[in-house]
Design a protein that fits this description.
This is Pyridoxal phosphate-dependent aminotransferase. Keywords: Aminotransferase, Transferase. It comes from Taklimakanibacter albus. The protein has 13 helices and twelve strands. By secondary structure, it is an alpha/beta fold. It has two domains: 139 residues, Aspartate Aminotransferase, domain 1 (Alpha-Beta Complex); 222 residues, Type I PLP-dependent aspartate aminotransferase-like (Major domain) (Aspartate Aminotransferase, domain 2). The strands form three sheets. Strands 2-8-7-6-5-3-4 form a seven-stranded mixed β-sheet, sandwiched between helices. A three-stranded antiparallel β-sheet has the order 9-12-11. A two-stranded parallel sheet has the order 1-10. Helix 4 runs parallel beside helix 10, helix 5 packs parallel to helix 6 and helix 11 runs parallel beside helix 13. It is globular. It starts with 5 loop residues before the first helix and ends with a helix.
Length: 388
């Protein structure tokens, strides 16, 4: 019998893709499924980005690039981030990767291994937990609480740090809750981490362009005293509606970039060069359409939260960012796994049960409002009819 690496065999499939498969199977049989499970903007990328990719496919370059990404793109990313957050960022800190997941996966490889502990949010993006497992570390969840507007308590997080802790993973605005962590808690966490010099920070800021009225985003780049151990995860997928392009970037401490370069050379060599050229056009081109995306999501947020709060047994807080709502469905009398399954099979509305995002997600559903207003209103009407 073949013997497999136990770090790999324990990995679980991401729930959103499992639900997507079931939704597609029902749709293939003719069911009018509305999929609010997958986190994917329903817009097309701006035209100037498509034209840059088309030109690159036609005219080149067509060869390998440096593993960490072409210099013009890394310079553009550095200038964009430095301008947004008013902090110094250099091109030699930027690493271009095929999708945001690669950044936290590499971080888990670098800081994992037997005996290591990595803190991650619960509920949180499921691949965090699986990347920690595959890197051989022990995952230690810290709670994300509804009463904190789906943020964390910095003192509670800091209390979980042990001599074995090597990395803490943070996500704001967050998947699956849409929560934006209060600036005071971010600052308190940063101050506490200053007392733990052996703990690195991975801040997933992929949704940082999607912050709405009532919330304020704080980047971990705001704390220069932690810069030598802070990794920023960001990319093009959510901001520019480029999920399928698989294009992301990390801003790494300079001392770690060479380790990441080596991982890239044995993993994927470099990122698709046409996608890099599209990313360059996105970073250096007009941003007005991107702001239009944000405003559209903000409007949909209001429709969804109002609609969810009108459902029997359901309550929903107003999310501060991203494009997710995380309604509390405990009042329906059903557990969230059963409710999600019934809504898909009977109402043909695909949602993700909260347990898919961790134990603290039990009793909740994740709804992505990255769908048209018409689809959202129809889905809410079906849910209302189903719940009675």
């Amino acid at each position: 019998m073949l013997k497999l690496n136990p770090n790999i065999t324990v990995i679980e499939e991401e729930g959103a893709f499992a639900v997507l498969d079931r939704a597609l199977a029902l749709k293939a049989k003719g069911a009018p499924v509305i999929n609010l499970g997958i986190g994917q903007p329903d817009f097309s990328p701006p035209r100037h980005i498509l034209e840059a990719a088309e030109k690159a496919v036609r005219d080149g370059p067509h060869g390998y690039t440096t593993p960490i990404g072409i210099l013009p793109l890394r310079e553009a990313v550095a200038a964009h981030i430095a301008g947004r957050f008013k902090v110094p960022v250099s091109a030699d800190e930027v690493v271009i990767v095929p999708g945001g997941k690669v950044t936290f996966y590499f971080a888990c490889l670098l800081f994992g291994g037997p005996g290591a502990e990595i803190l991650y949010p619960d509920p949180g993006f499921p691949p965090y937990r699986e990347a920690i497992r595959s890197g051989g570390a022990k995952g230690v969840p810290y709670p994300i609480r509804e009463e904190k507007d789906f943020g964390f308590d910095a003192d509670e997080v800091l209390s979980l740090i042990t001599p074995q802790t090597r990395l803490i993973m943070i996500n704001s605005p967050a998947n699956p809750t849409g929560g934006v962590v209060d600036a005071k808690e971010i600052e308190k966490l940063a101050q506490g981490l200053a007392k733990h010099p052996n703990v690195a920070i991975l801040s997933d800021e992929i949704y940082s362009h999607l912050v709405f009225a009532g919330a304020k985003f704080t980047s971990f780049l705001s704390f220069p005293e932690l810069r030598d151990r802070t990794i920023i995860l960001d990319g093009w997928s959510k901001t520019f509606a480029m999920t399928g392009w698989r294009l992301g970037f990390g801003i790494w401490p300079k001392a770690l970039v060479d380790h990441v370069r080596k991982l890239i050379t044995v993993d994927h060599s470099c990122v698709n060069v046409a996608a890099q050229m599209a990313g360059l056009a996105a970073m250096t081109g007009p941003m007005d359409e991107i702001e239009g995306f944000r405003k559209s999501f903000e409007k949909r947020r209001g429709i969804v939260v109002d609609g969810l709060n009108a459902l029997k047994g359901v309550s929903c807080r107003m999310p501060g960012g991203a494009f997710y709502a995380f309604p509390n469905v405990k009042g329906t009398g059903r557990n969230s796994r059963d409710l999600a399954r019934e809504l898909l099979n009977e109402a043909h509305v695909a949602l993700i049960p909260g347990e898919s995002f961790g134990d603290n997600g039990a009793g909740y559903l994740r709804l992505s409002y990255a769908a048209s207003e018409a689809e959202l209103k129809e889905a809410l009407a079906r849910m209302k009819s189903f719940l009675g």
